[in-house]
Amino acid sequence: MKLSFLAFLPFLFIGACANPSITSVDKSTLSASGGGSIYVPRFEGQPEFVEEATDMFVATLRQKTSHRIIQGDVLRTESTDILGSGNIAPKQTGLSAAKSAGAGLLILGKVTSHKTDMMLNGFVTTRIIDVKSGNILGTIHRPSGLLVGNSEHQCVMAASKRAADALASKL
Q1: CA separation, residue 102 to residues 75, 131, 155, 161 (Å)
Q2: pLDDT by residue (tens digit) across 130-160?
Q3: To 10 degrees, what angle do helices 152-168 and 50-64 make?
């Protein structure tokens, strides 16, 4: 039994590395936007994770940047699309809320997870938007990065923290 587990171990490492991270953020454009404060409405996606994932993202961002972070509420009613882990909220909906809050940057986010009999993972995708121009300045996507996860929740929280770390390094 031990031998078969050891033989299977390299495949676990390969599988853990199979989820790409995406960072498409032009730091100079982001800096030039003069963001000031950052508005982060509640992320969308799987309802069981959105509150905590947003909280983790905001808490991590607050620790790693001097920008004022404004944590907002849900942007739209939870339709079938959202409950099914659908798309990120429409940009215009987020921009209206961010303008009302006096923010310079808007971060829209989506939370998903993946579970099979032998694998767990969590994912967070964010878009960074300049409130004044409405231009998308970047996208960050992060899987959990965990080799072994004990729950989907743990994986989503790890992905949320990694996404916030990635954004903070670009601010």
Answers
A1: 16, 9, 33, 25
A2: 998 898 899 888 888 777 767 888 888 888 9
A3: 30
As a whole number of Å, the end-to-end CA separation of the chain is 49
Q: Is the pTM of this model over 0.85?
A: no
Concatenated DSSP letters of 113-157: EEE-SS-EEEEEEEEEEETTT--EEEEEEEE---SS-S-HHHHHH
- Rounded distance, CA 30 to CA 148, Å? 34
Round to whole Å and give the CA distance between 132 and 103.
9
**Lookup result for tokens 């004022």:** 68
CATH 3.30.160 matches 20-168: yes
- Contact 143/121 with Cβ under 8 angstroms? yes
Q: Across all residues in the chain, what is the average pLDDT?
A: 80
